[in-house]
Amino acid sequence: MPEIFGIPSAALFGQLLIGLINGSFYALLSLGLAVIFGLLNIINFTHGAQYMLGAFCAYFLLSRLGVGYWWSLLIAPLAVGALGVLIERTMLKPLYKLDHLYGLLLTFGLALVIQGLFRNEFGSSGLPYPIAKELAGGHNLGFMFLPNYRAWVVAASLVVCVATWFVIERTKLGSYLRAATENPALVQAFGINVPRMITLTYGFGVALAALAGVMAAPIYQVSPQMGADLIIVVFAVVVIGGMGSIMGSIVTGFGLGIIEGLTKVFYPEASNTVIFIIMAIVLLIKPAGLFGAQR
Amino acid sequence: MKHQYIGIAVMALLFALAPLVVYPVFMMKAMCFALFACAFNLLIGFGGLLSFGHAMFLGTAGYAAAHSAKIWGFPPELAIVFGTACAFLLSVVTGLLAIRRLGIYFAMITLALAQMIFFFYLQTPFTGGEDGIQAVPRGRLFGFIDLSSIWAMYYTVFVVFIAGFLIIYRAIHSPFGQVLKSIRENEARATSLGYDSVRYKFMAFVLSGTLAGLAGAVKALVFQLASLTDVHWTMSGEVVLMTLLGGLGTIFGPVVGAFIIIAMENYLAQLGAWVTVVQGAIFVVCVLTFRRGVVGEIAHFIKKPL
Amino acid sequence: MSAVRKLSAALGLAFAAMSAPMVANAQVSDGVVKIGVLSDMSSLYADIGGPGSVAAARMAVEDFGAAKKGMKVEIVSADHQNKPDVGSAIARQWYDVDKVDVIVDVPTSSVALAVSQVTRDKGKVFLVSGAASSDLTGKACSPNTVHWTYDTWMLANGTGSAIVKSGGNSWFFITADYAFGHALERDTEQVVLKNGGKVLGKVRHPLNAQDFSSFLLQAQSSKAKIIGLANAGGDTINSIKQAAEFGIVERGQNLAGMLVFLSDIHGLGLTTAQGLIFTESFYWDLNDQTRAWAKRFAPLNNNKYPTMVQAGVYSAVLHYLKAIEAGKTDDGTKVVAQMKKMPTDDPLFGKGSIRADGRKLHPAYLVEVKKPVESKGPYDYYKVRSQIPADQAFRPEKEGGCSLVK
């Protein structure tokens, strides 16, 4: 078996593939954050809690209403997205005229509230959520055993990411959104309901987080803390990719997954820190991020 | 400024007499966090820079002081100095990396750096990881004051707190402080007047980090423990909360905010996770309706800066 | 008085008022035995100890018959949130201000070590049920601390040697990269090697890692017969869940959980957890006495069956009260000495004793998780593979490095 740097190539490819899978989650989550920041200039610290809400929603749909995974993929993002719309309408709107940091602090506080409430109710042990029958099992690829579900995660994330990017960068709706961010007054003068677009955009970003949560439920524990530490990593991804850039977040998300996978093979203890080191380096050399434009 | 001097005198008197009625360990904890919050406030309230990683200074100094006292046998005054010096060095290094960025980017890079420090401390053996450095000896201050006596420890913390507070007060009311405020208000204009805004912000950052370290070093001796809690990002969030609640950019705000939060944590400790919920709720309420904070509202009411 | 002075005075009163709960006004006479149950009430270990430990302590006080014997016993509880600073602060305050005489439970070794130190400084009693570190009766031993239920040495020795002897002689470790994980891995590796087994590889993962796929992949490719999980809580649950996803057990490797509790299995479900082998010192379905106790306990704990930690709290409190009754004092160091003099006996752990280093001795059990078809109902999860007698289950006294052992 050929070896690369002392690691059998089979193991290396296996790790890369797993890294790609993890990268899909990073990409999905940072996509939602990038949409919200890029278009609305809001740092949505609540993103991790909304991801968790998506997973819990799927859990409740299954355990209380018997609604399965496929429907949850649709319902949970809508439900949590609606909650996001409510949050935006009631709490974020008054803050737009202030320093952006207040938005950060508000969403930070909201995250604490949501996570704390759920922790009180459900403890921290986590709740089980089964993998949908259609996606169970896996295939032996030779160099590793790939569970079907994980392959599905990669495929679904890619589709969602590319679709979102397309809508925002290549369609008329997307161009309205981008214009509204740069100059809301002017765009509103053209008769476009800017506040409503902003609200819906926030809701969409939140729905993306919830979607990631539903997809995470079968493989990670559905627990109140699942988003808390993840959110920091996702921020790093968004910053590296360029805070306004959709493509940047997608590429960085997948890229980070792969880099993390490689780090786990060669030097696992650093797998937590590698993202922050990269972020610090990027911020020093190109503060707007790899794909970002200077604002 | 006379009313501020009165305020300082009253505060000093209250804290000096407090251990007669209030549990001294609570007061010491609150004073350490009050100093931490004051140092943080220097940066955000007067410098306009939100650092989301200030815990790295608190924790680094704590670990340094604890390690030097326990393993190298430093007497307490040297342990505190050593801890503060380590925080100073860290603030210089991180300041050089972070200070050129503005606003959100600054907050994010401080967060990233703090996370790196956290994971580093998690894994290096000397910190004891999840166990922390325990059984840190308090020793004899200057060779003869036995700090295991609660009174000696208390008044040592009290003196350190008042000293730190006065340093910050002096910095704010000096020409340096005025320039800093002007940079916060309008950086372009300050630069056009000839002030090197980056240099001023850097100095504020270093001063803030060093004093946060002082708080951390003393805290390690009070509790005889240095743990990961002090470098976790939730600690960075807590100091933001204390300062926000007390009043950003006020002199006494951080002190009040720290006391309220510490008291609340103590009081609600029975209720476990409700502490997080309440803290989050305070954030939300403060940002939406109470942006001036407790002291800020009082100052607004009496129409004098506090 | 100027407005500012009034304001400052008002602020000062506000501080004092807010600090009121901390004022030393607890009117507790020495006629009361006050027990403090310090546990994780809301997070990782809440189901392992938590409110269930409080319920267990109450049951012990009742079963002891304190009221009939004229002994006043009070129970308080608090949440240490798995943080040593929070735990030691609560302990300090309990001892200084609230006149607590004994602290029990405390899962999380880092908190236990801190509380043990505070207890020693104040001359009170600390009965550890939840924490694992064998250092509590080793280099950090104290005349005021008794380590109940289990420790890392028992886990390593029980699970490790039993598995190697039954054929699992090649191991791969997945270890949580912090002090507790390292200790567990080290202790288990020693046992494996001593029994003629081999360690084919190790990988360290960051604490609270969400994703174990890459580590499991490495474990799979090592072809070790046993994958040892030197981690706890959410990490263990995640490792097991994802191992099921990658078909590890189906493809011929077995998982050895080094620290697993009944509540973890309940959370995982039998489909995922089946075949897991580990060591515990108590299981509710061992005999008639444990069953009867569990049936009384469950309604007091939200219908959740007891973990060994909660059982340990019951046993410890019971013996503590008996020691006070016999010694007629609640002075910390003296009570612990008395507890060591008296042999222990309760329906949960049977007959046992406490050594000079503070280690409580009782038998341990190697258990295997049943397959779903083998289980007759909720919490019917284990089959007992073997019993390890008390004198072999724990580290020999001389090897611990405890200064109390002469």
What is the number of strand segments of chain B? 4
- Most extensive contact: B-C, 45 and 47 residues
Low-pLDDT regions of chain C: 1-29
How are the strands of the largest sheet of chain B arranged? Answer: 1-4
For the largest beta-sheet of chain C, the strand count, sense and barrel status come to: 5 strands, parallel
Reported CATH architecture of the largest domain in chain C: 3-Layer(aba) Sandwich
Distance between the termini of chain C: 68 Å
Descriptive notes:
The complex is a heterotrimer of chains A (295), B (306) and C (406). Chain A has a two-stranded antiparallel sheet. Chain A has a two-stranded antiparallel ribbon with strand order 3-4. The model of chain A has no long low-confidence stretch (mean pLDDT 85). Chain A has a single domain (7-285), classed as ABC transporter involved in vitamin B12 uptake, BtuC (Orthogonal Bundle). Chain A has helices spanning 9-40, 47-63, 69-92, 100-122, 148-170, 172-182, 184-189, 194-216, 230-241, 246-266, 274-285, and strands at residues 3-4, 7-8, 138-140, 145-147. Chain A is 69% helix and 3% strand. Chain B is mainly α. The N and C termini of chain B lie close together (9 Å). The mean pLDDT of chain B is 90. By secondary structure, chain C is an alpha/beta fold. Chain C folds into 2 domains: 32-150 and 286-358, Response regulator (Rossmann fold, 3-Layer(aba) Sandwich); 153-280 and 364-389, Response regulator (Rossmann fold, 3-Layer(aba) Sandwich), CATH 3.40.50.2300. Chain C has a 5-stranded parallel β-sheet with strand order 2-1-3-4-5, with helices on both faces. The model of chain C is unreliable at 1-29 (pLDDT under 50). Chains in contact: A-B, A-C, B-C.
Identify the notable features of this structure and list them briefly:
heterotrimer, B: 306 residues, mainly alpha, two-stranded antiparallel ribbon, 13 helices, 3% strand, globular, C: 406 residues, alpha/beta, Rossmann fold, 2 domains, 5-stranded parallel β-sheet, 4-stranded parallel β-sheet, disordered N terminus
